[in-house]
Amino acid sequence: MTTSTASVAVSSPPVVRFPLGALLLLSLGVFVTVTAESLPAGLMPEMAAEFGVDPLRIGLLVSVWALVVIGTSLPLTRATRRLDRRVVVAASLTVFALANVATAFAPSYEFAFATRVVAAIAHGVFWAIVIVYASSLLTGSQLGRGLALVTGGGTAATVLGLPAATALAQVTSWRVSFAVMGIGMLLLAVVVLRRLPRSIVAPVPAGTREPLRHDRSIPALVAFGLSGLLIGLAQFLSFVYIRPYLADAAGVADAWASVLLFVFGAAGMAGVAVAGALADRFPRSALTATLVLFALAFAALALFPGQLAVVVAALALWGAATGAVFPLIQTALMRAASDRLRDLASAAIIVLFNVGIAAGSWAGGQLSSAFGPTANPAVSGAAVLLAAVLAAVGAALASRRG
């Protein structure tokens, strides 16, 4: 009797190319929108002088931004969730662009205020949809790197975009800066519409759709959402008042404060660069570990303000954690959320983060005036440590669901 052995060919799974070009376009969109969001802060003296108002009223143009995003992101995301995400991104960039051009030609402060409200509405929609759109272009193993690349545009806006726009305004006019940003966004909207692929969510038939309360991803999303709120609170409670801390607590001269802030920004870029690899290699623990480092940086600033070497190292660690934490929490959200909740989860984290920004910016001033500048990083450290606990809970819940 003879036996024959047949060889079985095992085919390896197809390699999916990393959509670098599409992600760079989305990252550029994040870059220009975050730069435009911060412009009034960089152009405050020039805008206040031309409109004849107190600089604090120009600062209100930044504060109202967060409030508008909080109020409009979720309902507008729900209203547009069945549309092609490419079209929603391009449309929000177009509205954003026109609002910025209108700001450039604003005849009065009130007109500029109205244009900023319109731009903030477009920004809320853009931020809520851009992460979900990017996620739809990526495989599971690419998610961390891809979202780090997209959200890295926001860090680049802080380090490069706002200083460049401010320098342009000083050479020309603040109106030129707004106009250039608007024209750039309009061109980008055209490229997005022509170059990026369609992405449409197929509706689930009503008869086969389970009630939302049965969605098992909700507990993990709640934990991550609360963590995001605390991150925004801690970050802005301390960062808005970093100059008083450096001057009064650390004894750093004004001439060196800008150097230390550059160190902070450069470290943030480094944090973005490693966040993607961390999210893909350590999907359960990367966010929690980063938040623990975040808390250690705040603790060092609170406990050792008189030791310059410690302050510089803590600022660098804080900057790196700031750069890494947003792509990490967005990646965790996209992995944890069910398909039906991805859009709303992305919008909700933006809302919660902005709630944290508004609360932290206000509370930081009260805390610093009552207890001194070292109180801010102390409270920020405690808030971030609680955020780390919530992130660990969210990761455990998401893993159990998976």
Write the layout of secondary structure elements.
Elements: H1 20-42, H2 44-51, H3 55-80, H4 85-104, H5 109-136, H6 143-171, H7 174-195, H8 218-239, H9 242-249, H10 254-281, H11 286-303, H12 308-336, H13 342-371, H14 375-401
Helix pairs in contact: 1-3, 1-5, 1-6, 1-7, 2-3, 3-5, 3-13, 4-5, 4-7, 5-6, 5-13, 6-7, 6-10, 6-12, 8-12, 8-13, 8-14, 10-12, 11-12, 11-14, 12-14
Description:
By secondary structure, the protein is mainly α. The chain contains 14 helices and no strands. The chain has helices at residues 20-42, 44-51, 55-80, 85-104, 109-136, 143-171, 174-195, 218-239, 242-249, 254-281, 286-303, 308-336, 342-371, 375-401. α3 (55-80) runs antiparallel to α13 (342-371) and α6 packs across α12. The longest helix is centred in the last third of the chain and has 30 residues, at 342-371.
Q: Roughly how many Å apart are the termini? A: 50 Å
Class derived from helix and strand content:
mainly alpha
**Helix content estimate:** over 70%
Average pLDDT figure: 83
Q: Largest sheet at a glance?
A: none
- Low-confidence segments: 1-15
Provide the gyration radius in Å: 22 Å
Instruction: Please tally the β strands and state the result.
Output: 0
Strand content: under 5%
